[in-house]
Amino acid sequence: MTLLTILEFPDPRLRTKAQPVDPARIADPDFQTRLDDMFQTMYEAPGIGLAASQVDDHRRFMVIDTSEEKNQPLVFINPEIVKADGHQVYQEGCLSVPGIFADVTRADTITVKAYGRDGQAFELDADGLLAICIQHEMDHLEGKLFVDYLSALKREMVRKKLEKARRNSAA
Ligand code: NI
Fold it and tell me: 58-103 pLDDT, tens per residue?
């Protein structure tokens, strides 16, 4: 398996809108390996979700594991939210915006439709952290980041802070 490089804000490649995966290609060894590499990259980071966009792969899929034990890997290919209810606020972070956390309001409960890594379509009801994570990763597939929910001023502060952190780590 290979650890993939995670793009960081404000890398313009994170703004790419992902294209649907052909369900007939899900079983391809290359695609299955890509899924394994994404899980390894996510667990190693460590994170609870990773969208393909974050590793410069602009196809509509993402991997998630919100379990404490890191033993509930979920794959969502061509995900679509078919139902959303209520609101919840959670302090989110993102592997593409390291060290930054901010409150974001999202739907409380969702029903998501997607293909799994076995190529089968499924529907899942989610709430709590899993619902947040699915919505956050699906934003990535649209080229959207959680910092987009902040004011322009705050987003600029985040950009400067990351720039400074990168300068310091390079020094
Ligand atoms: Ni993220």
Answer: 999 999 999 999 999 999 999 999 999 999 999 999 999 999 999 9
122-144 burial code (b ≥16 CB/10 A, e <16):
eebebeeebbbbbbbbbbbbebb
Determine the Cα–Cα distance for residues 58 and 56; give it in Å rounded to an integer. Answer: 6
pTM (predicted TM-score) = 0.96
CA 24–ligand 1 middle distance (angstroms): 27
Domain range summary for the chain, segments of one domain joined by +? 12-170
112-169 pLDDT, tens digit each: 999 999 999 999 999 999 999 999 999 999 999 999 999 999 999 999 999 999 999 8
CA of 50 from ligand 1 middle (Å) equals 7
CA 29–ligand 1 middle distance (angstroms): 26
Query: How many CB atoms within 10 Å of residue 21?
Result: 16
Task: Report the CATH superfamily, name and number, of domain 12-170.
Answer: Peptide deformylase (3.90.45.10)
pLDDT in tens, 104-123: 999 999 999 999 999 999 99
Active-site residue list:
137
